[in-house]
Protein backbone atom coordinates (compact mmCIF):
# COMPACT_ATOMS: atom_id res chain seq x y z
CA UNK A 1 0.00 0.00 0.00
CA UNK A 2 2.76 2.45 0.94
CA UNK A 3 4.68 1.50 -2.21
CA UNK A 4 1.60 2.20 -4.35
CA UNK A 5 1.11 5.57 -2.67
CA UNK A 6 4.76 6.51 -3.26
CA UNK A 7 4.47 5.56 -6.93
CA UNK A 8 1.31 7.65 -7.28
CA UNK A 9 3.03 10.69 -5.71
CA UNK A 10 6.06 10.18 -7.96
CA UNK A 11 3.81 10.03 -11.04
CA UNK A 12 1.94 13.20 -10.07
CA UNK A 13 5.25 14.98 -9.45
CA UNK A 14 6.53 13.96 -12.87
CA UNK A 15 3.35 15.23 -14.56
CA UNK A 16 3.54 18.55 -12.68
CA UNK A 17 7.19 18.98 -13.59
CA UNK A 18 6.45 18.26 -17.23
CA UNK A 19 3.58 20.76 -17.22
CA UNK A 20 5.77 23.48 -15.73
CA UNK A 21 8.51 22.73 -18.24
CA UNK A 22 5.98 23.02 -21.06
CA UNK A 23 4.77 26.37 -19.72
CA UNK A 24 8.36 27.60 -19.54
CA UNK A 25 9.05 26.47 -23.10
CA UNK A 26 5.91 28.20 -24.34
CA UNK A 27 6.80 31.37 -22.45
CA UNK A 28 10.23 31.39 -24.12
CA UNK A 29 8.76 31.48 -27.64
CA UNK A 30 6.54 34.14 -29.20
CA UNK A 31 4.64 33.80 -32.48
CA UNK A 32 4.46 37.04 -34.46
CA UNK A 33 0.91 38.34 -34.99
CA UNK A 34 -0.46 40.76 -37.58
CA UNK A 35 0.46 44.33 -36.61
CA UNK A 36 3.46 43.28 -34.49
CA UNK A 37 6.80 45.09 -34.61
CA UNK A 38 9.99 44.30 -32.73
CA UNK A 39 9.43 47.43 -30.66
CA UNK A 40 5.91 46.33 -29.69
CA UNK A 41 7.02 42.80 -28.82
CA UNK A 42 9.99 44.10 -26.82
CA UNK A 43 7.72 46.43 -24.81
CA UNK A 44 5.20 43.66 -24.08
CA UNK A 45 7.92 41.29 -22.86
CA UNK A 46 9.93 43.95 -20.99
CA UNK A 47 13.04 43.43 -23.09
CA UNK A 48 14.84 45.48 -25.73
CA UNK A 49 14.69 45.22 -29.49
CA UNK A 50 18.41 44.42 -29.50
CA UNK A 51 17.81 41.55 -27.05
CA UNK A 52 15.28 39.93 -29.39
CA UNK A 53 17.54 40.45 -32.41
CA UNK A 54 20.49 38.88 -30.55
CA UNK A 55 18.47 35.87 -29.33
CA UNK A 56 17.15 35.21 -32.85
CA UNK A 57 20.21 36.24 -34.91
CA UNK A 58 18.21 38.92 -36.72
CA UNK A 59 20.24 41.25 -38.94
CA UNK A 60 17.50 43.89 -39.20
CA UNK A 61 14.11 44.81 -37.70
CA UNK A 62 12.05 42.92 -40.29
CA UNK A 63 9.70 40.23 -38.95
CA UNK A 64 6.78 38.37 -40.49
CA UNK A 65 3.44 36.94 -39.37
CA UNK A 66 3.70 33.43 -37.80
CA UNK A 67 7.46 33.82 -37.25
CA UNK A 68 8.67 32.12 -34.05
CA UNK A 69 10.83 34.34 -31.87
CA UNK A 70 12.84 33.16 -28.90
CA UNK A 71 12.20 35.27 -25.79
CA UNK A 72 14.39 34.93 -22.68
CA UNK A 73 12.70 33.18 -19.73
CA UNK A 74 14.11 35.85 -17.43
CA UNK A 75 12.60 38.52 -19.65
CA UNK A 76 9.10 37.06 -19.39
CA UNK A 77 9.20 36.64 -15.63
CA UNK A 78 11.63 39.15 -14.16
CA UNK A 79 12.83 42.60 -15.14
CA UNK A 80 16.28 41.82 -13.75
CA UNK A 81 18.21 38.66 -14.56
CA UNK A 82 19.99 37.19 -11.51
CA UNK A 83 23.75 36.85 -11.90
CA UNK A 84 23.55 33.35 -10.42
CA UNK A 85 20.00 31.90 -10.40
CA UNK A 86 20.99 28.96 -8.20
CA UNK A 87 22.24 31.11 -5.32
CA UNK A 88 20.49 34.45 -5.66
CA UNK A 89 17.14 35.03 -4.02
CA UNK A 90 15.13 37.38 -6.28
CA UNK A 91 12.93 38.46 -3.39
CA UNK A 92 15.90 39.97 -1.57
CA UNK A 93 17.65 41.41 -4.64
CA UNK A 94 16.45 44.90 -5.49
CA UNK A 95 17.61 46.31 -8.80
CA UNK A 96 18.87 49.85 -8.81
CA UNK A 97 16.88 52.09 -11.13
CA UNK A 98 18.84 54.90 -12.77
CA UNK A 99 17.22 58.29 -12.68
CA UNK A 100 15.57 59.78 -15.75
CA UNK A 101 17.84 61.66 -18.09
CA UNK A 102 18.29 65.41 -17.83
CA UNK A 103 19.71 65.61 -21.36
CA UNK A 104 17.71 67.66 -23.86
CA UNK A 105 18.60 65.85 -27.08
CA UNK A 106 20.77 63.15 -28.59
CA UNK A 107 22.54 63.24 -31.95
CA UNK A 108 22.57 59.80 -33.56
CA UNK A 109 26.03 58.35 -34.23
CA UNK A 110 27.18 55.22 -36.04
CA UNK A 111 26.08 52.10 -34.15
CA UNK A 112 23.13 53.75 -32.43
CA UNK A 113 19.68 52.18 -32.30
CA UNK A 114 16.50 53.32 -30.55
CA UNK A 115 17.00 50.50 -28.05
CA UNK A 116 20.56 51.59 -27.26
CA UNK A 117 19.59 55.24 -26.91
CA UNK A 118 16.60 54.37 -24.71
CA UNK A 119 18.87 52.38 -22.38
CA UNK A 120 21.48 55.13 -22.32
CA UNK A 121 19.00 57.76 -21.13
CA UNK A 122 16.69 55.48 -19.11
CA UNK A 123 13.63 56.12 -21.26
CA UNK A 124 11.53 53.84 -23.44
CA UNK A 125 11.59 53.37 -27.20
CA UNK A 126 7.94 54.42 -27.33
CA UNK A 127 8.71 57.67 -25.51
CA UNK A 128 11.49 58.57 -27.96
CA UNK A 129 9.21 57.80 -30.92
CA UNK A 130 6.34 59.85 -29.44
CA UNK A 131 8.57 62.84 -28.63
CA UNK A 132 9.97 62.87 -32.16
CA UNK A 133 6.90 61.85 -34.14
CA UNK A 134 8.56 58.63 -35.36
CA UNK A 135 6.37 55.86 -36.77
CA UNK A 136 9.16 53.32 -37.38
CA UNK A 137 12.38 52.31 -35.59
CA UNK A 138 14.64 53.60 -38.38
CA UNK A 139 17.05 56.37 -37.33
CA UNK A 140 19.91 58.02 -39.17
CA UNK A 141 23.43 59.22 -38.39
CA UNK A 142 23.33 62.93 -37.59
CA UNK A 143 19.65 62.81 -36.62
CA UNK A 144 18.80 64.92 -33.56
CA UNK A 145 16.32 63.24 -31.21
CA UNK A 146 14.43 65.03 -28.43
CA UNK A 147 14.66 63.24 -25.08
CA UNK A 148 11.51 64.61 -23.46
CA UNK A 149 8.21 66.15 -24.47
CA UNK A 150 9.44 69.54 -23.22
CA UNK A 151 12.75 69.37 -25.10
CA UNK A 152 13.52 71.80 -27.88
CA UNK A 153 16.42 71.97 -30.30
CA UNK A 154 18.11 74.96 -31.89
CA UNK A 155 17.18 76.08 -35.38
CA UNK A 156 20.47 74.73 -36.68
CA UNK A 157 19.40 71.24 -35.65
CA UNK A 158 16.58 69.24 -37.17
CA UNK A 159 14.46 66.53 -35.59
CA UNK A 160 13.75 64.02 -38.35
CA UNK A 161 10.05 63.32 -38.54
CA UNK A 162 9.79 60.34 -40.90
CA UNK A 163 12.45 61.99 -43.04
CA UNK A 164 11.98 65.19 -45.04
CA UNK A 165 13.86 66.67 -47.96
CA UNK A 166 15.33 69.42 -45.78
CA UNK A 167 16.17 67.23 -42.82
CA UNK A 168 19.63 66.96 -41.40
CA UNK A 169 21.00 70.28 -42.60
CA UNK A 170 23.49 70.19 -39.75
CA UNK A 171 25.02 66.92 -40.95
CA UNK A 172 24.72 67.08 -44.74
CA UNK A 173 26.82 68.83 -47.37
CA UNK A 174 25.87 71.94 -49.31
CA UNK A 175 28.78 71.71 -51.74
CA UNK A 176 28.28 70.87 -55.41
CA UNK A 177 30.48 68.18 -56.98
CA UNK A 178 33.62 69.12 -58.91
CA UNK A 179 33.55 69.37 -62.69
CA UNK A 180 34.46 65.67 -62.93
CA UNK A 181 31.75 64.72 -60.46
CA UNK A 182 29.13 66.71 -62.33
CA UNK A 183 30.21 65.02 -65.56
CA UNK A 184 29.59 61.60 -63.97
CA UNK A 185 26.20 62.79 -62.72
CA UNK A 186 25.20 64.12 -66.16
CA UNK A 187 26.15 60.89 -67.94
CA UNK A 188 24.38 58.85 -65.26
CA UNK A 189 21.17 60.84 -65.76
CA UNK A 190 21.47 60.36 -69.54
CA UNK A 191 21.82 56.61 -69.04
CA UNK A 192 18.84 56.54 -66.65
CA UNK A 193 16.73 58.45 -69.18
CA UNK A 194 17.70 55.96 -71.88
CA UNK A 195 16.21 53.03 -69.95
CA UNK A 196 12.87 54.69 -69.09
CA UNK A 197 10.24 52.13 -70.03
CA UNK A 198 12.40 49.13 -69.11
CA UNK A 199 10.21 46.52 -67.35
CA UNK A 200 10.54 45.95 -63.62
CA UNK A 201 12.47 42.82 -62.68
CA UNK A 202 13.24 41.94 -59.08
CA UNK A 203 17.04 41.69 -58.78
CA UNK A 204 17.49 42.96 -62.34
CA UNK A 205 20.41 45.25 -63.15
CA UNK A 206 20.50 45.29 -66.97
CA UNK A 207 18.31 46.92 -69.68
CA UNK A 208 16.48 43.58 -69.90
CA UNK A 209 14.88 44.34 -66.53
CA UNK A 210 15.63 46.53 -63.51
CA UNK A 211 14.58 46.98 -59.91
CA UNK A 212 15.11 50.25 -58.02
CA UNK A 213 18.63 49.56 -56.75
CA UNK A 214 19.53 47.71 -59.95
CA UNK A 215 18.85 50.94 -61.86
CA UNK A 216 21.33 52.75 -59.60
CA UNK A 217 23.95 50.06 -60.14
CA UNK A 218 23.52 50.06 -63.93
CA UNK A 219 23.22 53.82 -64.49
CA UNK A 220 26.18 54.86 -62.33
CA UNK A 221 28.50 52.15 -63.65
CA UNK A 222 27.61 53.16 -67.19
CA UNK A 223 28.03 56.78 -66.15
CA UNK A 224 31.63 56.21 -65.09
CA UNK A 225 31.38 55.50 -61.35
CA UNK A 226 32.23 51.93 -60.43
CA UNK A 227 29.98 50.82 -57.58
CA UNK A 228 28.92 47.46 -56.18
CA UNK A 229 25.42 46.03 -56.24
CA UNK A 230 23.52 46.85 -53.03
CA UNK A 231 19.92 47.15 -51.89
CA UNK A 232 18.33 50.57 -51.32
CA UNK A 233 19.08 50.24 -47.61
CA UNK A 234 22.64 49.16 -48.43
CA UNK A 235 23.26 52.24 -50.57
CA UNK A 236 21.67 54.47 -47.93
CA UNK A 237 23.89 53.16 -45.14
CA UNK A 238 26.94 52.74 -47.37
CA UNK A 239 29.44 55.25 -48.76
CA UNK A 240 26.98 58.08 -49.32
CA UNK A 241 26.61 61.54 -47.79
CA UNK A 242 23.39 63.46 -47.29
CA UNK A 243 23.07 66.61 -49.39
CA UNK A 244 21.09 69.71 -48.50
CA UNK A 245 20.72 71.11 -52.01
CA UNK A 246 20.25 68.16 -54.38
CA UNK A 247 21.30 68.42 -58.01
CA UNK A 248 20.66 66.17 -61.00
CA UNK A 249 22.42 62.88 -60.46
CA UNK A 250 22.01 62.75 -56.69
CA UNK A 251 20.22 59.86 -55.00
CA UNK A 252 16.78 60.17 -53.43
CA UNK A 253 15.63 57.68 -50.78
CA UNK A 254 12.17 56.69 -49.55
CA UNK A 255 10.88 54.59 -46.68
CA UNK A 256 7.80 52.49 -45.86
CA UNK A 257 6.86 51.65 -49.46
CA UNK A 258 6.60 47.86 -49.62
CA UNK A 259 8.26 47.35 -46.22
CA UNK A 260 9.20 49.36 -43.13
CA UNK A 261 12.40 51.38 -43.24
CA UNK A 262 14.48 52.37 -46.27
CA UNK A 263 12.84 50.49 -49.13
CA UNK A 264 13.05 52.49 -52.39
CA UNK A 265 15.37 54.89 -54.21
CA UNK A 266 15.82 56.76 -57.44
CA UNK A 267 18.01 59.25 -59.31
CA UNK A 268 17.08 62.91 -58.93
CA UNK A 269 16.99 64.81 -62.25
CA UNK A 270 15.95 68.28 -61.04
CA UNK A 271 12.67 70.22 -60.84
CA UNK A 272 11.36 67.78 -58.19
CA UNK A 273 11.54 64.88 -60.67
CA UNK A 274 13.35 61.57 -60.26
CA UNK A 275 13.85 58.42 -62.32
CA UNK A 276 13.20 55.11 -60.60
CA UNK A 277 12.19 51.52 -61.26
CA UNK A 278 8.60 51.21 -60.07
CA UNK A 279 6.26 48.25 -60.35
CA UNK A 280 5.32 49.37 -63.87
CA UNK A 281 8.95 49.69 -64.93
CA UNK A 282 11.48 52.51 -65.09
CA UNK A 283 9.62 55.81 -65.02
CA UNK A 284 9.85 59.48 -64.07
CA UNK A 285 7.92 60.61 -60.99
CA UNK A 286 7.50 63.79 -58.94
CA UNK A 287 8.74 63.92 -55.32
CA UNK A 288 6.00 66.43 -54.45
CA UNK A 289 3.21 63.92 -55.11
CA UNK A 290 1.69 62.97 -51.77
CA UNK A 291 2.71 59.30 -51.95
CA UNK A 292 6.39 60.19 -52.41
CA UNK A 293 6.54 63.37 -50.30
CA UNK A 294 5.23 61.54 -47.22
CA UNK A 295 7.85 58.81 -47.64
CA UNK A 296 10.84 60.92 -48.63
CA UNK A 297 13.80 60.37 -46.30
CA UNK A 298 16.79 62.19 -47.78
CA UNK A 299 18.85 63.13 -50.79
CA UNK A 300 22.34 61.65 -50.78
CA UNK A 301 25.45 61.49 -52.97
CA UNK A 302 28.09 58.81 -53.42
CA UNK A 303 31.24 59.78 -51.53
CA UNK A 304 33.32 58.90 -54.60
CA UNK A 305 31.71 61.78 -56.50
CA UNK A 306 33.91 64.69 -55.46
TrEMBL record:
The NlpC/P60 domain, residue ranges: 182-303
Family membership, please give it.
Belongs to the peptidase C40 family.
Q: What SUPFAM superfamilies does the record tag this protein with?
A: Cysteine proteinases, LysM domain
Q: Which CDD domains match?
A: LysM (cd00118)
Q: Where does this protein have compositionally biased stretches of type Polar residues?
A: 175-184
Q: Which organism is it from?
A: Lysinibacillus xylanilyticus
Name of the protein in its database record: LysM peptidoglycan-binding domain-containing protein
Q: Which UniProt keywords apply?
A: Hydrolase, Protease, Repeat, Signal, Thiol protease
Ranges for the LysM domain?
28-71, 104-147
PROSITE patterns found in the cross-reference section: LYSM (PS51782), NLPC_P60 (PS51935)
Where do Low complexity bias regions lie?
81-102, 163-174
- In the UniProt record, the signal sequence range is 1-27
Amino acid sequence: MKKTKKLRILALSTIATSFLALQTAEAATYTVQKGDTLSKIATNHKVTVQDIKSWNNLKNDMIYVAQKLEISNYATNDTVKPSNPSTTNPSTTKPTTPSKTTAVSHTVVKGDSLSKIAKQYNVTIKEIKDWNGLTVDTIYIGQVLKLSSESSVSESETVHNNGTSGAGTSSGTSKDPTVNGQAVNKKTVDVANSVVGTPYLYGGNTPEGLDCSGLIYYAFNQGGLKIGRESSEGYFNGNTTQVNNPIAGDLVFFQNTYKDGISHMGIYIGNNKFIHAGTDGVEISDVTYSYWSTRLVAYKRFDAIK
